[in-house]
């Protein structure tokens, strides 16, 4: 039986004394809540689809177990291995993104998924963490040179274009935000930063003009009486009906009328059944997770690690913010999953990759004399 002695120098003991255990416990808590809430939110959907009442929760447990295994496995890696895996993953994800418009499965007018060995795979989910690491490596090679910046733009822009044509505006925003965050951390000149933001503004206007579904979502967000706001209205009703303490586990009724209750609007189900206070607990746990990741890398004296972790933390935090923001109508509705909570294989595995890389990059330097239990 593993005892994790401080004087031990085997790989598992070193991992135990250098990994952030508060982060691990927070991840496990959120995953357990996600499993419990998916079992409640997906019940009526499963019955409607004739798949058996535990179909979605069984798959969700499988996805989260795989994601946790990926996160733990990656957390053993050093930064060289993380970088190499990310570059390979980025190249493979790019190839899959290129294939998606031609061989992808169309759902609600968008081609975002590929069927591989009987599973639906969303390549855009996987390119996010891989791009954050790859871009950090490129920028850190020649931080003060324009060649690194141009190379960075050269790998980011094609990824954004491939995602936009699916179309998936929300995911493209995530990719853009990763790039902008890393450029900001790098500390480029003010004039160049202003030029970047002006470019992004022009891109946003072009997307609004060119994509009808993006335009409609923004219009429905602005207009509270829009019929396109059906799910948002039901989501807000869930918060009202749940009150402070909720109606009780699995007792929610409004979720029956939410087509995406087990995915995009899982937070609304939590609000109805467990109440607003528990929603605050969930938000607090996400904040703790993001804060711990920040604390683990802020003292690092390695530009690559800082840039890579900054991009990974940003994309994780933005996922949480966009999903919860859409549920409470401070942001337009967008098919963005809530990490650990929302049902979905690609999003779960992508989250596992993100957290595993953050755990690996944030591990403390192994020093037997200085080790302390967190």
Automatic annotation (TrEMBL):
Its EC number is 2.4.99.28. The keyword Glycosyltransferase applies. It is found in: Membrane. Keywords: Cell shape, Glycosyltransferase, Membrane, Peptidoglycan synthesis, Transferase, Transmembrane, Transmembrane helix. Pfam families: FTSW_RODA_SPOVE. It catalyses: [GlcNAc-(1->4)-Mur2Ac(oyl-L-Ala-gamma-D-Glu-L-Lys-D-Ala-D-Ala)](n)-di-trans,octa-cis-undecaprenyl diphosphate + beta-D-GlcNAc-(1->4)-Mur2Ac(oyl-L-Ala-gamma-D-Glu-L-Lys-D-Ala-D-Ala)-di-trans,octa-cis-undecaprenyl diphosphate = [GlcNAc-(1->4)-Mur2Ac(oyl-L-Ala-gamma-D-Glu-L-Lys-D-Ala-D-Ala)](n+1)-di-trans,octa-cis-undecaprenyl diphosphate + di-trans,octa-cis-undecaprenyl diphosphate + H(+). It is a multi-pass membrane protein. InterPro entries: FtsW/RodA. The chain crosses the membrane at residues 22-44, 56-76, 82-105, 126-154, 160-180, 192-211, 265-291, 303-328, 340-362. Belongs to the SEDS family. FtsW subfamily. This is Probable peptidoglycan glycosyltransferase FtsW. It comes from Candidatus Xenohaliotis californiensis.
